[in-house]
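Page 37, continued from 36.
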């Protein structure tokens, strides 16, 4: 059972892919989209959200693309998830509306369910704070998931 929404999983995959491949040049959204079988426009929107969250940097120009905004050992998976999801919605589930349109919260939801789910979510994110992009890159390398798709450069003359 996966507790993360697809958007968060895609954000983590994109950031790890960029961290793994983005040297010496940034990774284009088209390249990422092709590697993950996604439409580039869909991915581009998510990448821009991660730029605004300070996870990625966008590089303009013909050799532009995306690169990490900070060292991969300093980006946790929880940072990416928080960035991808944005601010949590605090609008309660309700059982009706007042005449002015405000939702009347269900006591069960507002006093029991929401606080317990929020607590569990915070514990989950605390665990994800312990896992870095560096950890996932090393695991990807260990398992050869990219099949040595990183470019190799021969600087010998």
């Amino acid at each position: 059972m996966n507790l993360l929404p697809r958007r968060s999983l895609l954000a983590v995959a994109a950031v790890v892919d960029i961290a793994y491949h983005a040297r010496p040049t940034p990774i284009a959204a088209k390249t990422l989209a092709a590697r993950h079988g996604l439409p580039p426009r869909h991915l581009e929107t998510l990448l821009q959200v991660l730029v605004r969250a300070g996870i990625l940097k966008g590089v303009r120009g013909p050799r532009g693309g995306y690169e990490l905004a900070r060292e991969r050992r300093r980006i946790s998976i929880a940072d990416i998830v928080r960035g991808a999801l944005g601010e949590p919605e605090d609008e309660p589930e309700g059982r009706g509306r007042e005449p002015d349109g405000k939702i009347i919260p269900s006591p069960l939801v507002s006093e029991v369910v929401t606080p317990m789910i929020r607590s569990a979510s915070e514990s989950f994110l605390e665990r994800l704070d312990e896992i870095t992009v560096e950890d996932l890159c090393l695991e990807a390398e260990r398992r050869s998931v990219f099949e040595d798709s990183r470019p190799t450069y021969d600087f010998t003359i």
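The chain has a mean pLDDT of 87. Flag for discussion at group meeting. The helical segments are 6-21, 29-36, 40-52, 77-85, 107-128, 133-143.
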